[in-house]
Specification:
The chain is of the alpha+beta class. The protein has 6 helices and 8 strands, in the order βαααββαββαβαββ. It binds coenzyme A (COA).
């Protein structure tokens, strides 16, 4: 049995009431990535209500948030270059090759936010691989319900983060990049098969 419980922010809001939920959320701190912190504090509940993305809170035995991830789904283009035969086979299962620009068009599960709460145990109670396993558990349920098989995310071009997502356990593959005019940052796009 896992030491952690994953709860959909909307379900948690039902249980606790909005006021209590917000007080729980306000304890979330992520000094390494203030954008994620701001997202949790300001947008997570609102976005979930509006069905833009759904945030999942990972709770420890004391019902403290040790990490969060937010999920959505989105269309992506994956350039058809340098993939192994087995990857091409899987890509063709979940995506359509657009001959005009030689790229696969797919609808994919998006990990829109992903981070630990450094206010609890200094971020040491749950590690990133553990948080990714829990994310995968939820995505597997979604996959079981509606199918699909590509997961993607975007991360800043930081070696530690890129290494984390591409490590042996997580296995994400780089496929593109996107420049955001919203925050003037470059994001590296990574995907994997669920
Ligand atoms: C990504 C994450 C879940 C990985 O968890 P983990 O594997 O348990 O890793 P740690 O927290 O120990 O971090 C590993 C290293 O990456 C560094 N790192 C993590 N996030 C970073 C970030 N956003 N920017 C720069 N460095 C970062 C840490 O400082 C640490 O460096 P060190 O090895 O020199 O101590 C976790 O680091 C995290 O919550 N980071 C902040 C949120 C974030 O940036 N999420 C990714 C958004 S795409």
């Amino acid at each position: 049995v896992s030491r952690y419980k994953i709860i959909n922010i909307l379900d948690w809001c039902e249980i606790l009431g909005e006021k209590e939920l917000i007080s729980k959320i306000n304890d979330f701190s992520c000094p390494l990535n203030r954008e994620i912190e701001q997202f949790v504090l300001n947008n997570a509940l609102d976005f979930a209500k509006r069905k833009l993305s759904i945030t999942y809170c990972v709770l420890n035995m004391n019902r403290e948030i040790v990490g969060i991830f937010a999920l959505a789904h989105k269309a992506i283009d994956i350039e058809n270059s340098g993939f192994s035969n087995s990857k091409v086979k899987k890509l063709s299962r979940y995506a359509t090759l657009d001959a005009d620009n030689n790229s696969y068009k797919a609808s994919a599960f998006l990990i829109a936010q992903f981070g630990k709460n450094y206010a609890v145990d200094d971020g040491h109670s749950l590690n990133g691989n553990g948080l990714m396993d829990l994310t995968k558990d939820v995505l597997k349920e979604v996959q079981h319900a509606i199918g699909g098989g590509i997961v993607y995310l975007e991360c800043e071009e930081k070696p530690k983060l890129l290494e984390f997502y591409q490590n042996e356990q997580n296995g994400f593959i780089r496929f593109g990049e996107r420049y955001s005019t919203e925050d003037n940052k470059k994001y590296i796009q990574l995907f994997k098969f669920l």
